[in-house]
Amino acid sequence: MNNIISLQKLRKTFGKFIAVDDINLNIEKGKIFGLLGPNGAGKSTTIRMIIGVLEPTSGTAIIDGKDVTKNPELIKKEIGYMSQKFSLYEDLTVLENLKFYASIYGVKTNERDERINQLIDMANLSSKKKTLVKHLSGGWKQRLALSCSLIHKPKILILDEPTAGVDPVSRRIFWKMIFELANQGISILVTTHYMDEAESCDEVAFIFDGKILVKDTPKNLIANENVNTLEDVFIKYVENKTGEKVSASFEKLKFLQAGEENGF
Amino acid sequence: MDFNRLLAIIKKEFIHVFRDKVSFGIIIAMPIIYSLVFGYAIKTEVDDIKLAVLDNDKSIESREYISSFETSKYFKITKYVNSLDEIEKLIDGNTVKAALVIDANYSENIQKNLKNGSLLIIDGSDPTVATTALQSGLLVSSFHNMNLNNAVDINEFGINTKVWYNPNLKSTNFILPGLLAIVMQNITILLTAFSLVREKEKGNLELLIVSPIKPIELILGKMIPYMLIGFFDLLLTLYFGLLYFNVKIAGSVFLLIGLGSIFVICSLAMGMLISTIAENQVQAMQMTILVLLPSILLSGFMFPLEAMPKFIQIIGHLVPATYLIEINRGIILKGNDISYLLKDTVILITFTIFLLGIAINKFHKTLD
Ligand SMILES: Nc1ncnc2c1ncn2[C@@H]1O[C@H](COP(=O)(O)OP(=O)(O)OP(=O)(O)O)[C@@H](O)[C@H]1O
Ligand SMILES: [Mg+2]
C-alpha cells in the first residue's frame, strides 16, 4: 500500500452545514500534494480531521496505515503541522519555541541541540536565535513555524496555507525548503491559493463546497481542459459548478460605472 | 506521564507570566498595594485622632493626665492652646477632631477625690471618628483615674466591659484576615482564567492538541505554576497584611498557610473553569468580574454576612472565599485550632474537589 493518507467518505458537519461532504482521497507516499479551493471550501476542516483536532462526523481517515478516527494518538509523532494562522508563542524567543516543541514531542535531550541547530541552519535563523518571536517579520515567522513542525522528524508534513501573506522572495526560499524535504522522502500535504505553488506540486486536488471535484497532476489538468494555466482550470470548474461565469459576474458590477448607461 | 513534557509546560507558563508586565505587576504589586491600602485606610480612622489641649491647671497631675491621652495612641496631640476661642477655630477649621479642656482646679479636685472636672470636646461631623473619640476618651480617662487611686472601687466606674479576641476593636483586625483570602483568590483566578483562553484565541492550543502531549500533563503543567504563584502571594500578603500592621496571629501559622493553600487550589479551579468556558479573553474578563464581585461583597470580607438579608446570605455561602475568611479570622484573632474550624474546612475542601473535578473534566473535553 503506497498511500500515506487515505480518506474514505470523510464528512464533517457543523449543525446543518456540511463543511466536508463525503470526501474520498488518496495521497501517495513521498509526494507533494496540493489541496486547492476557494475560501470556505473545506480545506482546513479536512486537514484538521486528518491531524486529529476535529472528530469527523462520519467516514475514516487512514494515515500511515492507522485509523486516526479511532486513535489519533498513534500517528501524532509522525505528523508535522503548520496551522493556517501563525500560532507559535510570541513572547518566547526563537530558540525557546524550538526547545519547547522538542520537549513536547519527546525529542531526547542529547539529540535535541543537534536537531535544533540543523533546523536553524536550514531556515537561516541563526541571527535571530535570541529574538522574541513577536519581533520577527512574516517570512521569518513562517520559516520558524516550519522548523518547529519538523523538530521531531515527522514522516508527514501538513501545511495549511503556509505562505499566506508572505513576500515573493520569502515564498521562493520556503518552497526550496519544501522541495528539499520532499527529496528526503517526507510526504507533504499543502493548501494554497497561489497557482505557481500549486503547479509545483506533484499532484493536486480541487475542493469546492466540501466536495473534491478533480484530482490529477497539474500537467494533465492543463492538457485535459485545453487551457494555458492551472488558474484557468479552476475558474472553469467553479463556473461549471455554480452555473455562472466568473467573468460574466463582472458585468453585474457595471452599475458602479457611469449612471447614463443604466437606461440603455 | 512524561516528566520532561510537564517541565516544559511549567517553564513556558512562568516565562509568559514574567515577561508580561501586567501579570508580573499583579503578582507583586497587588498583594502589597491591597494590604497597604486596606491596612492604612482603616487604621487612620481609628487611631491618631487629632487633639487640641487647653491646660488651665498646669500642674504635674494635669500633665500626667494629658500624657495618658497621648500614650493611648487613640489620640495625637497636635496643638496646645490658651483659650476656648482657639479651640473653636481649630475644630471649625478641621485642624483637630477633639479638644481636651482641663479645669483650673484639676489637681485640687483629684486630691479631694472629687470629679476632676475636665472636658472633652468632640467634633461630631464624622460619626466614626466621633464615636471612637468618645469611647476612647472615656476609657483613657477611667484607666487614668484607676491608676491614680488603686483603692477606688472599680464598680464606681459603672459597667465593666471586656472585649474578646479583638480587644482594641480595630477594624484592621477584621479586614486584614479577609484580605488574605481575597488577594489570593483575585490573583489566582485572574491569571489562570487568561492562561488557557489566550492559547485558545491565538491558536497555540491547536498545536498542543496535535502534539503527543497528554491532557493530564497540560493540566498539571498549567496548574502548578499558578499554584506556586498563589502560594507566594499568600506569604506576601501574610507579611504586608498582617505582620506589617502588627496584627498578631493568635493561632497556628502553619494551619493558616495550609488551609490557605487549599483555597489557592479552589481559586485555581474557578479560573480554569472560566478558561474552558470562555471563547476569548474579553469573555474571560467578564466572567472573572462576575465571579470576583460577589466574593468581595458577599463573603463577609468588608460587610458582615449576619447583617445581610437571608437571600443574600445564601448567595454568600455559595462563595468559597466566605469559608476561608471565616477560617482566617478564627485562626488569626481567636487562635482557633482545626477542631473549631472543621465545618468551614470541610465545606472548603468539598468546594475545591467539586470545582476541580468540573474544571478538569471540561479541560479534557476542550483538548479532545
Ligand atoms: N468550528 C466551526 N463551526 C462552524 N462552522 C465552521 C467551523 N469551522 C469551519 N466552519 C465552516 O466550514 C467551512 C469550511 O471552512 P474551512 O476553514 O475548512 O475553509 P477553507 O477551505 O480552509 O477556507 P480558507 O481558504 O478561507 O482557509 C466554512 O464555511 C466555515 O465557515
Ligand atoms: Mg483554511
DSSP summary, beta strand count of chain B: 4
Radius of gyration of chain A: 21 Å
User: What portion of the residues of chain A fall into strands of 2 or more residues?
Assistant: 15-25%
Q: What is the domain tally of chain B?
A: 2
Tell me the fraction of residues in β-strands of chain B, as a range. Answer: 5-15%
Overall body shape of chain B: elongated
Helix content of chain A: 25-40%
- Mind summarizing the main beta sheet of chain A? 6 strands, mixed
* Ligand catalogue: adenosine-5'-triphosphate, magnesium ion
What is the terminal separation of chain B in angstroms?
A: 17 Å
Number of strands of chain A: 10
Task: Outline the structure in words.
Chain A is built from 8 helices and 10 strands. Chain A has helices at 43-50, 94-104, 109-122, 138-150, 168-183, 195-199, 218-225, 230-242; strands at residues 3-14, 17-28, 32-36, 58-63, 66-67, 79-82, 156-160, 187-191, 203-208, 211-216. In chain A, the strands form 2 sheets. Chain A has a 6-stranded mixed β-sheet with strand order 6-7-8-3-9-10, sandwiched between helices. A 4-stranded antiparallel β-sheet of chain A has the order 2-1-4-5, with helices on one face. The radius of gyration of chain A is 21 Å and the shape is globular. Mean pLDDT of chain A is 90; it is low at 260-264. Chain B is α/β, with parallel strands linked by helices. Chain B folds into 2 domains: 49-164, abc type-2 transporter like domain (abc type-2 transporter like fold, 3-Layer(aba) Sandwich), CATH 3.40.1710; 171-367, no CATH class. In chain B, 68% of the residues lie in helices and 6% in strands. Chain B is built from 14 helices and 4 strands. In chain B, α1 packs across α9, α2 runs antiparallel to α7 (171-202) and α7 (171-202) runs antiparallel to α11 (281-297). The longest helix of chain B is centred in the middle third of the chain and has 32 residues, at 171-202. The radius of gyration of chain B is 27 Å and the shape is elongated. Classes of the chains: A alpha/beta (264), B alpha/beta (368). Chains A and B meet through α2 of A and α1 and α8 of B. Residues 43-44, 84, 160 of chain A line the site of magnesium ion.
